Amino acid sequence: MQLKTLTAAALLAALPAFAIPTAEVSVIVEDGLVLLDKFEIAEGTITTYAVDPAHAASTVQLTKRCGSNKVTCDGSHVPPFNTCQDLVSSIIDNSRVLASNPRSICLNRNGGNCCISWSKDIGNVVEQDLWSAAQKSLSQCVSEGKSAKASDVTINGQCLNQCLSNRASNC
Question: Where does the WD-like domain lie (predicted)?
């Protein structure tokens, strides 16, 4: 993942976990995304991103086909399997709300990045609502050394694409 970071982002990474500011920081870190939250878990660093309002896209209405979680695999932006397995496992029963219109949640471990990202703003997201398409993507694609895109995913009543890859944007 190519990060376009500013000095402020580097300073955030150097701060102890308890001192990391969250929503007050609006540093664009990658492809129009801003950092929402960053914290440590036993498996690595969890980071959530949102789209900078200047880059927000229009919404699409829910369609009849939505909810199928149709997964397609791709050979680019392949994430490390074990990191993705830990990320997906961490959200299965997690009712933590990702506030402020997030667009991705990532786990970084030893330089290996795995991100669950989605194609549009859908409001506040409960982590466990991302699990079904992420688990399907993990078992069908990432386990085979590929990245994944699940189409026709329903979250918060919205129809969207959800990706499992090594980048936080461009799903």
Answer: 61-171
Q: In whole numbers, what is the pLDDT of the chain averaged over residues?
A: 81
Contact 79, 147 (CB under 8 A): yes
E-assigned strands of the chain? Answer: 28-30, 33-41, 44-51, 70-74, 97-98, 102-109, 112-118, 125-126, 147-155, 158-165
Q: What is the per-residue pLDDT across 136-145, written as a single tens digit (0 to 9) for each?
A: 999 999 999 9
- Claim: this prediction has a pTM higher than 0.85: no
Q: At what angle do helices 131-140 and 81-91 cross, to 10 degrees?
A: 160
What is the C-alpha to C-alpha distance for residues 151 and 148, in angstroms, rounded to an integer?
Answer: 10
